[in-house]
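One example copied in:
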Amino acid sequence: MYISYNWLQDFIKLSPKYNFNEVADKLTAHTVEVEATKNQKEVFSQVVVGKVLEVSKHPNADKLSLVSVDIKDRILKIVCGAPNVESGQLVPVALDGAILPGDFEIKTSKIRGEISEGMICAEDELGLGFEHKGIMVLKEKAKIGQDFSEYLKMDDLIFEIDNKSLSNRPDLLNHYGIARELSVLFNTTLKPWEKIIDDKIKIKFNEKDKFKAEVFDKIACPRYMALKIDNIKVAPSPDWLKKRLVAINQRPINNIVDIANYVMFELGQPLHTFDAAFVDKIEVRRALNNEKIETIDQKERQLNVDDLVITNGKNIIAIAGVMGGLESQISDKSTSLVLEAANFSAEVIRKTAQRLGLRSEASLRYEKSLDPNLTEVALKRFVSLLKEVCEDIKIIGTGVDIYSHKPIEKKIKFNYSWLTTKIGQEIPKNDALKSLSLLGFTCTENDNEIEVVVPSWRATKDIKEKEDIVEEVLRIYGYDNIKSTLPKEELSLPIDNQERLLERRIKDMLYSQFLLTEVYNYSFVGEEQLKKLNIDFFNHLKLANPLSELNSMLRQSLAPGLFSTIKNNQSKSDDLAFFEIGDVFFNLPGEYVKDISGIEKLPYQEKRLGIILAGKNKLVFSQLKNITTNFLTWLLNLNDDVVYLNFDTPPGWADEKLIAQVSVAGKNIGWLGLGSNDVKKNLNLKVEVALLEINCNSLFSLFLEQAPFKIKEVLKYPPVVRDLCFVLPDKILYNDIKDVLSSFHPLIKSVELFDTYKGIKLPADKKSLAFHLTYQSEEKTLTSNEVDKIQKELVEQVIEKFGAQLRDF
């Protein structure tokens, strides 16, 4: 945002002893961040007044002319394409090295074979308007060789203020608000706004002959004011008005639009003017789905029920608070207007502007929550200025003022000793109360308790509680005036966040021991992306304002992002290994509330760990299974094995034959599977992909439940290892037979699968599983006869229970 120093002087008189940069530093230290300052003369550096001496036809171009221009110290040869260039004219000339608005640099060059030593400028090229029909012809008072900024009397100094520092200060998005702050900082008088309004102009509201207007959504539009004015004459703005707008980087358009803009930059209240020929009455309502309007930028906009619109009872004539319609805008033929000064809901305007990608100076201010009392001030100021420009204007009837929701006066009480304790230093009470009063607060004191009434322009979203009053006192007093002292509180170590520590431990283990690379993917997914993974997206949460269709929903699994990571990196390596820890979201109420009302809750979310491997063949499934087993065993200090169970409802991306649930200590904590051929084809994958996804909440519970690590004494009696190989029906699961082997006898200490076989030596519905069985006693050395007896009984049970037979080949 740009602020004119000269404009500020309309409301305050700063002593000449204060340097411009001192004022900027003061603003930065106490109110807003001044990013840069500049002298307006610098804008037209290397632009001078020249006199056209001779105009001749360009030998190589029909529409170009060769112009000789006197700039006092030399004669320039310039190629010009303007149709209105004539000898004797005084014109602005941009010299070699000049940089015009838009960072357009002028250089001496050849144009169609002829040297051009500069450029004769049009209004729009200088940022002084939109006129480009011909060059700008200056008045006779211009002097040859004179700096163009001197001709325009551009002697202003400009503050460039960072908009981010104004996020909660809508009262500072204008010159009067900045002047109010400076009046306090420099202890000078602020001119009341009443004195900038012509007191001869009397405007009445809401009488019998009032302009017809109706507001159907009074929450979205708390206040709406309108006034019809006749006998206007649309013409270029006077020089003083153009000069003010150009100073803050705004292009003058015409006197009516320029006055509306002037008031907005002066007081902070956006105004809009309609051609009264198209507006018999005003209706403020919500748009219907798919309603359309062509805005003044000549683009058609499609609206929905979240948008607030202004209509004439038949057609939409403006998107409220954002942009007006093309048909009803003021034109050169307009003779009467309808002036709108309104207060709109910040939330409504923000959503509309964001969705339409249409951010305007008006919407910027409405989004910050404006003071509804400002509408009347701005309306009267507009009429005062219009009277200066068009003396014959006539107000038709009386204005309309629909004030549906008047804000309640906000009062804050606090004890002054509390304030000084909060600051940590004594500040004279009189100084603090004086600062608050100058800022517009009304302060009353009863004993040591102070009651502060918040001014309306600070009550919309800024000052809410007594801590905000502390900030006001402190920033005016000066942060640099507060002595730095260490707090007297006893420091204690923060409570360890066990979940975070476990997450860090998991990350360290995965990339240091298993050589996996961590990735971070978006929490957003798209419909097409889920279709390719055969994932049903019916219950996925949809975003109200997605960045694109590719990111229109919240993910319910880490799989989409991890598959995309493989797809994007498969050209770089045949073997890829990644992991991710992130949140997934479900269409269920979660534990966190959405707002202070506590009624609505945010969606349920849980943290998950995903590991994905990619390789040339399906061995990646076995590799990932080994990683999973070792990782969980080491992390959780397991005595029991990690178990892989049948998965009745596998995810859509998985191969139905190579998918399993991961179970630890009887709890299902996730699943592991190989990507199906369909998914490979849909995603154009050239590699086989295996994916593991684990619920981190379940993992954390298991981590807390694990027994303390203990070292067991090694058994002193030797183990006996026997091998058993069974031929089983293909439907028998590894876990089922392993459970029988492990639990059959206390002397069986471990069971390890070392071979599987399916092939031509076996029927198609059979498979072979081979196991190492370790027998060991804590009390004695086992004999062969003892082991043989147990093993014989074990084989008989397996044959009986599973229909197995011992393999004999």
About this structure: The chain has six domains: 2-37+159-191, 46-146, 212-403, 411-481, 498-705, 720-806. The chain has a mean pLDDT of 91.
